[in-house]
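Hello,

Following up on my earlier ticket. Below are the two sequence lines again, exactly as submitted.
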Amino acid sequence: MAVYTEVSDEELAQFIAPYGLGNLLSCKGIAEGVENTNYLIHTTAGAFILTIYEKRVEPKDLPFFLGLMEHLSARGVTCPLPVRDRDGRVLNELAGRHAALVTFLEGMWPRRPKVEHCLELGKALAQMHTAGENFSLRRDNALGLPGWRPLFDKFSERAAEISPELEHLIETELAFLDSSWPSNLPQGVIHADLFPDNVFFIGDKLSGLIDFYFACNDALAYDIAVCLNAWCFEANFQFNATKGRALLKGYDSVRRLSAPEQKALPVLARGAAMRFLLTRSYDWLNTPKTALVARKDPIDYVRRLRFHQAVVSIGDYGFEPAR
Amino acid sequence: MAVYTEVSDEELAQFIAPYGLGNLLSCKGIAEGVENTNYLIHTTAGAFILTIYEKRVEPKDLPFFLGLMEHLSARGVTCPLPVRDRDGRVLNELAGRHAALVTFLEGMWPRRPKVEHCLELGKALAQMHTAGENFSLRRDNALGLPGWRPLFDKFSERAAEISPELEHLIETELAFLDSSWPSNLPQGVIHADLFPDNVFFIGDKLSGLIDFYFACNDALAYDIAVCLNAWCFEANFQFNATKGRALLKGYDSVRRLSAPEQKALPVLARGAAMRFLLTRSYDWLNTPKTALVARKDPIDYVRRLRFHQAVVSIGDYGFEPAR
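Thanks for your patience. The regenerated structure is below:
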């Protein structure tokens, strides 16, 4: 929860005028998201999210993120749609920072995802992957395989502060991933961070996907691997195969999982667990205990990783090929 | 800015059902208010604020606050209206705390109040005072004259940590206030905390008053004294008599200031400065520097107090009696 950049009513009125959204009615800083500052704005034209981009977002990536939301939205994916001002711009400045206005998506994210949520998620993820074809911009996955070793190097000397076994575990696992990572999988635009708090539901119906600020080009199936980690473990870190089955079945019903993708899924799931283990470990060691943002325990991903290490095939995630 | 109590989507859906407000569409924790947790909620019936009452609010006071908002709203004051559930209740429980749902008021609070804002504020304050007549419940001002000495006793030994002169200043001023405080003024329900962030405007038009959680029975003119402190000083602590005049003129145009009220205003303004000096000093000494809520410098109110000490009559606040 965080509002890093405060905006005055006068600055905001000036900022919003060129969008032609009628009268500004209200603006509330919202306590969600950890990277950027977000305000929920009402105007006579409706509800919008104003995002002020903070330091962790690379300005050069913003056209990719905003362009992707436009591209997906035009192809039927329910996601925030960047609003263009009278000059056609989606990216402007506010309070000395880059800022954009997007449509507000109604919906609640599921604090305790159920099987039905996972089924809907799988379908929506596949729809997003399909809709992302032909998107003209490209962004490498800064937190993909090539980025893990350099990230680990930044904190490996202090890994023992988290757990005595951590350095060895990561070292061994990175070596395994380096030698086993598949290179022949269908590529495309992935969300790369589709945790429950980025997926909205109204009742049991999925109402939208948000937060495309990690989106990039990578293996499509890696996005599924992220979701298996993020949606299908119980609070006690037991993998729930019923949820896994629903997620994979939902996905496969919209976009068929190829044989190489099915085969690669256990390795991809290990990679996804590694990605979050690394970023959480880094943040754990570099975020003051007193920061506004709650630190998340990296060990959660050691537990997930150990499960994936024992997985033999996609069947262990609950998948039953339809054919 | 703070969301102290997190609420799950399931808890919220259960909580909101008895209000008959249609489908729950979204819920965002908002980064405003320092006492309670507030969520901005959209349902198919409109926008609402869900307030979860935290420890600093006395549960026994809640019927007064919520009843007052209902009373004022019924008499034309634009303020949040508590929503009654199917059993007629305005106060319920959520996440183990007291909670209420009120209508959402559109509007922005003015970061830099202008003369026009002060004029509108004066009128709205007088309208609130008039509308508050006959409200059947009663609440003493816990932060009025009788409460200042006990509050000071809690931190007087540490006052020097803020400023070497502070203990003597407060001691002397409390003695003056004790001997000079007027007892013959018209009484009624006052807001008692009507700072700019509690007054909403759409454009230059006042759209509503919020946050009645300090409201109480006291001298009506004391509420004006609070507003003089809160609205009419510039960032450099110079009193702006044009703003003072607008505030007082706006008030007097709706509810005539009696001669005793006019005479008492300088003492009341000293008292109001003392009230915020005391609470800010207490909070300054008792809030960890690392807390979620920004500490506000008590010395701001020493500066205001020194201005009021030099005031001779209400004319120094810009007031020109209409008759």
